[in-house]
Amino acid sequence: MFFSFLKHCPRILLFLLFTLFYTSTEAYDPLDPNGNITIKWDIISWAPDGYIAVVTMNNFQRYRRISAPGWSLGWTWAKKEVIWAMVGGQTTEQGDCLKFKETIPHCCERTPTIVDLLPGTPYNQQIANCCKGGVLSSWTQDPTNSVAAFRVTIGRAGTTSKTVRLPRNFTLKAPGPGYTCGPTKIVKPTKFISKDKRRVTQALMTWNVTCTYSQFQAQKLPTCCVSLSSFYNDTIVQCPTCSCGCQGNTAQSGSCIDPSAPHLASVVNNSGNNSIAPLVRCTSHMCPIRVHWHIKLNYREYWRVKVTINNFNYRMNYSDWNLVVQHPNFDNLTRIFSFNYESVIPYGSINDTVMLWGVKYYNDFLMHAGPSGNVQSELLFGKDKSTFMFDKGWAFPRRIYFNGDICVMPPPDAYPLSPNNGSKQEVSFLSLTMALLVALVFYAYV
Ligand SMILES: *[C@@H]1O[C@H](CO)[C@@H](O)[C@H](O)[C@H]1NC(C)=O
Ligand SMILES: *[C@@H]1O[C@H](CO)[C@@H](O)[C@H](O)[C@H]1NC(C)=O
Ligand SMILES: *[C@@H]1O[C@H](CO)[C@@H](O)[C@H](O)[C@H]1NC(C)=O
Ligand SMILES: *[C@@H]1O[C@H](CO)[C@@H](O)[C@H](O)[C@H]1NC(C)=O
Ligand SMILES: *[C@@H]1O[C@H](CO)[C@@H](O)[C@H](O)[C@H]1NC(C)=O
Ligand SMILES: *[C@@H]1O[C@H](CO)[C@@H](O)[C@H](O)[C@H]1NC(C)=O
Ligand SMILES: *[C@@H]1O[C@H](CO)[C@@H](O)[C@H](O)[C@H]1NC(C)=O
Ligand SMILES: *[C@@H]1O[C@H](CO)[C@@H](O)[C@H](O)[C@H]1NC(C)=O
Ligand SMILES: *[C@@H]1O[C@H](CO)[C@@H](O)[C@H](O)[C@H]1NC(C)=O
Ligand SMILES: *[C@@H]1O[C@H](CO)[C@@H](O)[C@H](O)[C@H]1NC(C)=O
User: Fold this and answer.
1) Which of 263, 268, 273 for mutating ligand 5's site (highest number of atoms within 8 Å of CB)?
2) Phi/psi at 6 (5° precision)
3) Which domain holds residue 310?
4) Are 281 and 369 part of one and the same domain?
5) pLDDT per residue over 128-173, tens digit each?
6) Which uninterrupted H or E stretch holds 303?
7) 234, 235, 423: which to mutate for ligand 9, most atoms within 8 A of CB?
């Protein structure tokens, strides 16, 4: 069954190969080959002992976002630069500014770490695109909120394009590891177009740094799993046991919450001291997120699927969540009820992957574990008669990612079998043939 399943989707094999070859060596995402976060420094004016720069961070990743508590950006100064002032961001530490007597810099660290300001920052401390608490939307979902920016005034630096030294060794935490940043490169100065579009100005000097994500670098435990069911079979295939951790295991992932515990709210409130580690409901899979795919109805020309996402994490509301799903029938997705979608076609030919996300103010917010901790939608597919079938698990998804992290799938040989096909029928056919043979042999001898 396993191999016949693979025969029908060689893409999976391809994918596994890709993953094997690329994840261990470099940051590479086959579904988003050009995905990156680009950090751009525009020098907008020279200062007596340095310069003023606007730093812009663009999330050019189709489906990976940066969630609360947000990004932090670090770099190493080339010489003895200091940050006199910042707008729209701040360094986490001031460092040792003992040498300065009159005006004290904002930061004297050789490797400063910058974080975003929180929403609600007074207007005179803001610049455009700042102050989102470090949250960056994915490029597909909300391009206007996939940008962050802050302004820095640098001292003890060069004051001309010949003498200025580029900061090096950029690090991006989001908030954990996973991103690797490339070298700092001087690029063509950014052009700024005035509001009335009648004048164009440009930066005095611009440099870029590109950071890419790798799940291998992030070394995260899985955070999501998939369960399956269908109208044609009562079996519900649960998430594989221990997908994201094991119950009763006292290591990192081990603790969980029994929803029937008497003091649930206070346990959720007190444990962990504002930690960002998930606090999950006790399940056999221990995942904070479960995606359920139910094959709901079969029409003559169409078939219908219900997708439900459950949040089992008591400590996390997922705003602007997204799902990336791969299934060969996505080239004929006829209707989707109450989710947004966009095709993801990395190689321009195979149209089998979509990105799904919630409708603003309706289901874009996936509430923490509990009665409201779920979102759902239904998908209607048109049948292509030459490939459509219910047997061999064809109607189940090949891959699912939640917020860019791959979800653990049940093994293909556990999938619910369709009633009018599968091993049972083969067995009865075989025994029928055997019976006939025996009968023939019997007759021949008599
Ligand atoms: C970063 O992403 C943008 C947008 O997809 C792309 O134009 C650019 O070439 C990428 N940069 C690198 C270095 O891959
Ligand atoms: C530098 O980054 C900006 C986005 O912040 C991008 O538009 C531009 O193409 C980049 N330049 C180069 C040479 O990569
Ligand atoms: C930058 O990082 C590399 C490798 O981590 C290290 O060898 C180098 O010394 C660092 N440079 C500076 C200026 O810190
Ligand atoms: C949880 O903590 C918040 C603030 O820390 C408090 O207002 C609330 O009453 C607590 N809830 C319970 C059930 O302990
Ligand atoms: C919270 O942190 C304090 C000090 O770090 C520690 O003593 C306490 O045990 C922690 N509480 C919980 C519930 O983890
Ligand atoms: C999730 O959002 C709800 C409603 O805004 C809020 O009451 C709750 O405290 C939030 N939970 C967490 C874990 O942030
Ligand atoms: C891919 O399939 C979707 C859903 O049927 C369709 O809307 C889209 O136009 C297709 N894209 C291409 C490039 O074929
Ligand atoms: C899409 O589904 C419709 C309705 O079943 C069918 O007529 C059409 O041939 C299908 N198209 C493709 C490309 O599979
Ligand atoms: C449902 O699927 C399970 C698992 O593949 C299989 O063992 C069972 O026989 C199927 N039941 C029916 C009624 O087809
Ligand atoms: C049962 O499976 C066989 C291949 O194993 C296929 O040729 C046949 O069309 C299937 N029958 C039904 C009713 O789906």
Assistant:
1) 273
2) -65, -35
3) 220-261+277-415
4) yes
5) 999 999 999 999 999 999 999 999 999 999 999 999 999 999 999 9
6) strand 302-311
7) 235
